[in-house]
């Protein structure tokens, strides 16, 4: 049997992503595409400040159309790096949920399909992505015995909380932090994020809060239905190492 390698990419927050980190990840994918089974975006691929309730009545310097354009450009880079015949998974996070919440408002719902939702605007189906866009239904993807979700809990011991509630091996982003909680039968992995903490979009967060945010992603190898996990950190905002390969 062949070991299946997956990249699990959390919380990119396009267009406010860490460009150096994303560039290094794309370089790793291009160099190793023959070994990679697929990639999984675990939610908050887009930030969507243009329709955030937090910005109601404010000028945010960006609109939904330009956010879609930048997200499409970034997806083009990932699709090109990965190549043909690979599996691609796209989970919605709470930031993608902003579109659904906004579209349910009466004054917005009158526009109907004239305003494209995320799935259509990013051509996810045409690109070949399996999309999980309804958190009230199946909002997870399985890699062997590992459940991947965007994340639900945000408390200080988020990994422990997810492990206790879900009672399975689980991987998630959401908090932007890196935590691992292993209680014997199950293990929870909080795998950080891929955003740029210095971007204006994150000025709402105190420096103390952002000091806990970690640029990292998940590397999952699946063999005989079991998942082996590594959390890969972007060290000093310069490089990461996988299998003795330095990517910068």
SSE inventory with pairings:
Layout: E1 4-9, H1 19-32, E2 36-41, H2 64-82, E3 87-91, H3 97-103, H4 106-109, H5 118-121, H6 124-127, E4 129-132, E5 141-143, E6 146-148, H7 158-166, E7 169-172, E8 178-182, E9 187-191, H8 207-210, E10 216-223, E11 226-233, E12 240-242, E13 245-247
Parallel strand pairs: 1-2, 2-3, 3-4, 6-7, 7-9
Antiparallel strand pairs: 1-10, 5-6, 8-9, 10-11, 12-13
Description:
The chain has helices spanning 19-32, 64-82, 97-103, 106-109, 118-121, 124-127, 158-166, 207-210, and strands spanning 4-9, 36-41, 87-91, 129-132, 141-143, 146-148, 169-172, 178-182, 187-191, 216-223, 226-233, 240-242, 245-247. The chain is α/β, with parallel strands linked by helices and 248 residues long. The chain has a 6-stranded mixed β-sheet. Strands 5-6-7-9-8 form a 5-stranded mixed β-sheet, covered by helices on one side. Strands 12-13 form a two-stranded antiparallel sheet. α7 (158-166) links the parallel β6 and β7. α1 (19-32) packs parallel to α2 (64-82).
């Amino acid at each position: 049997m062949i070991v299946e390698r997956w990249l699990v990419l959390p919380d990119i927050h396009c267009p406010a992503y860490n460009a150096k980190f994303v560039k290094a990840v794309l370089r790793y994918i291009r160099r190793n595409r023959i070994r990679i089974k697929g990639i999984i975006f675990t939610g908050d691929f887009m930030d969507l400040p243009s329709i955030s309730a937090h910005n109601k009545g404010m000028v945010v310097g960006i609109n939904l159309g330009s956010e879609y354009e930048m997200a499409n450009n970034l997806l083009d880079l990932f699709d090109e790096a990965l190549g043909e015949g690979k599996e691609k998974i796209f989970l919605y996070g709470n930031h993608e949920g902003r579109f659904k919440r906004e579209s349910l408002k009466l004054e917005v719902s009158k526009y109907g399909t004239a305003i494209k939702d995320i799935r259509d605007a990013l051509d996810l189906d045409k690109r070949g992505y399996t999309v999980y866009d309804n958190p009230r239904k199946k909002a997870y993807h399985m890699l062997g015995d590992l459940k991947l979700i965007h994340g639900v809990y945000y408390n200080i011991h988020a990994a422990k909380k997810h492990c206790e509630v879900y009672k399975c091996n689980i991987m998630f982003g959401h908090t932007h932090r890196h935590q691992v909680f292993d209680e014997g039968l199950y293990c929870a992995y909080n795998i950080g994020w891929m955003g740029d903490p210095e971007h204006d979009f994150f000025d709402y967060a105190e420096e103390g809060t952002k000091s806990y945010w970690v640029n990292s992603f998940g590397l999952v190898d699946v063999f005989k239905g079991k998942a082996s996990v590594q959390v890969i950190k972007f060290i000093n905002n310069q490089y990461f190492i996988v299998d003795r390969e330095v990517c910068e």
